[in-house]
Amino acid sequence: MTVVEDRRTADALGSVSSGNALELRGVSKLFGALAAISDVTLTVRSGERRAVLGSNGAGKTTLFNCVTGDFLPTSGTIRLFGEDVTRFPAYERIRRGLRRTYQISLLFNGLTVADNVYLACRGVSRGRFSFLRPTANDALLTRSDELIAAVHLTDWRDTSVANLSYGQQRQLEIALALAGAPRIILFDEPAAGLSPTERAELVAILNGLPGHIGYIIIEHDMDVALRVAESVTMMHNGRIFKEGTPEEIENDPEVQELYLGGGDE
Fold first, then answer.
1. CB distance 218 to 185 below 8 Å
2. ABC transporter domain: from which residue to which, for each copy (predicted)?
3. How far apart are the first and last CA of the chain?
4. Residue 52 CB contacts under 8 Å (≥ 6 apart), including other chains
């Protein structure tokens, strides 16, 4: 599938959905008596880039897990492009254009960059169960090379993943998330453990993604988050604390006190 075909697919899907990519209404998740998230109501528009910030224990990753289907919420509803997916398994949400990266890299370390991306593309294609070996003109090979270029790894195309730097492995994960026709991607702390140079590379990659692909990014590094997001949600103790533009959040005294002056570690 080419980039143009990806966009056509996304446009066709978007034409029959609401103008919002994601809608959460009163979503809570309890673990026994512990409320990891409580009464979260959140709307993300199609194509929107949003950052979710908050100190450790604020409920950010639990929120992601509920959206992706790794956890089912205790209460509330989750709609993806207008469709109620609250009780859908993760694979059904993937089929509807949701993608996600995790805090820990999940890659095939014994394979090359090209092999990893090809497998990701093959895994969401109609021919994923075919035993035929790809030919030189396989459209998925072309698509794989496009995704490798999009995450700035062309020079490492034939390199074993085990020989990549940590930052390059994080870039590769973004390529895997782009396989198929993603409509919204959840990035879980993609800048964690990166050097300043690698963080600048990450910012360039995220800002260079096609405009029809929205994303939500969890990030502790406010400098990264505020450079790649157009809107920001602050969480505290499992609840939404503030929402606004990057400039509003950065200059908010309560946010500065919470984020820089302590908070819920």
1. no
2. 22-262
3. 44
4. 60, 63, 216, 217, 218, 232, 233, 235
With respect to residue 241, please indicate whether it lies within any of the assigned structural domains.
Answer: yes
CB 258 within 8 A of CB 236: yes
The verdict on residue 65 lying in a domain is yes
Whether pLDDT at 22 is above 70: yes
Residue 136 maps to a domain: no
**Run of H or E residues at 60:** helix 60-68
Q: Per the structure block, which two tokens stand in for 42?
A: 């959140």
Query: Pairing relation of β-strands 231-236 and 239-244?
Result: antiparallel
pLDDT tier at 59, thresholds 50, 70, 90: very high
* Mean pLDDT, residues 150-179 taken together: 97
> Domain tally for the chain?
1
DSSP for 187-242 reads EESTTTT--HHHHHHHHHHHHTS-TT-EEEEE-S-HHHHHHH-SEEEEEETTEEEE
Query: Which phi and psi angles does 53 have, rounded to 5°?
Result: -115, 160
| Residue 130 forms part of a structural domain | no
Count of beta carbons in the 10 Å neighbourhood of residue 119: 16
Q: Are 38 and 239 in contact (CB under 8 A)?
A: yes
- Partners of 232 in the β-ladder: 51, 244
3-state secondary structure of 185: strand
* Residues above pLDDT 90, as percent of the chain: 75
Beta bridge partners of 29: 37
Residue type at 81 in one-letter notation: F
Question: What CATH number does the domain containing 58 carry?
Answer: 3.40.50.300
